[in-house]
User: Fold this.
Amino acid sequence: MGLRLKFNLVLLAVFLLGLIISGSVSYELLHRNARDEVVRSAGVMMEAALAMRAYTVGQVRPNLRVSEEEFLPQSVPAFSAGEIMNLLRKKYPDYAYKEATLNPTNPRDRAVEWEADIVNSFRNTPQTEISGTRMTPTGPSLYLARPLQIKDPACLACHTTAEAAPASMVRIYGPNNGFGWKMNEVIGAQVVSVPMSIPVENANRAFYTFMASLTGVFVVLFIILNIMLSFLIVRPITRLSDAADKISTGIMDIPEFAEKGRDEVSLLGRSFNRMRRSLEKAIALIDEK
Assistant:
């Protein structure tokens, strides 16, 4: 096995090991960043919904002039937040916001199975936030959920019993939904769903680009190192080997090696030249006798 082959095998082994380690680390880092990006997007949507709820309570509801016989859903913070997010979904259909409730007034807010599991988790274990991923028809989606808890006694004015609730509201939604709520009870959860497909695709694209770039750098480095190995080590040593073979057969009329430089190959050439001169002197002394 030649020196060049040994060198290339060692270099290839080092590259493969480095590629595996750097690939594993970069893949994990890129996908973690992708998830963090999705979590930030979900957090922005959640805060936007909360801002809309606060705006409805502070700015819209106090300025509405309606009679007791009329009920405007637009004055309900949950309705307003849902409507804003539904408008957003016209441009971003994979993004979703829902105030999932176990016993909602508006049927559209009724929690489906996986949302009900989140609500029950909040009811069973006090938590401020839950996040996770689930599969959807369009790919993986990250959800961010916060509990909906009755903290304002004013909410109970419409949600204790159908008899105590505004008659106009009961006419719209009926007497069977959205009643029996209690103070400090977790009645639902605000759930934001954000698709992960695009960030994951971007992370994969960045990963493949990084690995391709790393491989390209290795190929260039491999070529450069092989050229350097050939000119600085393999060729001089091959010349020394050929010269040694000729001298061993009695052929002495070969030029000396250049003795410039202080590297190991130059020192070897300098030593070879001294050995050759010593050998020539010894042969000359033998011939004189």
